Amino acid sequence: MIEFFSTNGIALLIAVPLLSAFLTPLFEKINRFLRNLYIIFSVIVTVTIGFFVSYTIFVSGTLVYTLGATEPGLTMPSGLRVPVRIVLVADAFSAFMILSSSIIFFVSTIYSFGSIRKGFGKYFSLFFIMAASVFGILCTGDLFNLFVFIEILSISSTGLIAFRKEKPLSLISAYNYLIVSAVASLMILFGIGILYGQYGMLNIAAVSRAIKFSFVDVFAMVLLIAGLAMKCGSVPMHFWVPDAYGRAPSAVTAFLVVSSQASLYALFRVSFMLFAGFSLIQLVALAIITFGLLSMFIGVTMALVQKDIKRLMAYHAVSQTGYMLLGVGVGLFSINTTFYSHGLLAMEGGIFHIINHALYKGLLFLTAGAIIYATKERDLNKIGGIARKMPFTTIFFIIGAAAIAGLPPTNGFASKFLIYESVFVFNPLLSIIAVIVSMLTLISFVKIFCSAFLGPEREELKNIKEVPKPMLVAMSLLALCIISFGLFPDSVLKAIIEPAAKALLSQGAYLEAVF
Amino acid sequence: MSFVETHHGLWVPLAFLLFTCLAMLLSYVFSFLGRKDFAYSKEKAKPFISGHDPSAYEIIKASDYFWGFFKSTENYYSLTKGIHTGLVNDYIFWFIVVASILLIVFSIGVFIWV
Amino acid sequence: MILNSYFLAVALLSLVGFYALVFRSNMIKITMGLAIIASAVNLFLISLGYRYCGIAPIFTDAPIDPSQSQLKMVLPVPQALTLTSIVISLAVTALMLSLSVLLYRKTKSLDIRDIKEALSND
Question: Running DSSP on this structure, what letter comes out for residue B39?
Answer without folding.
Answer: P
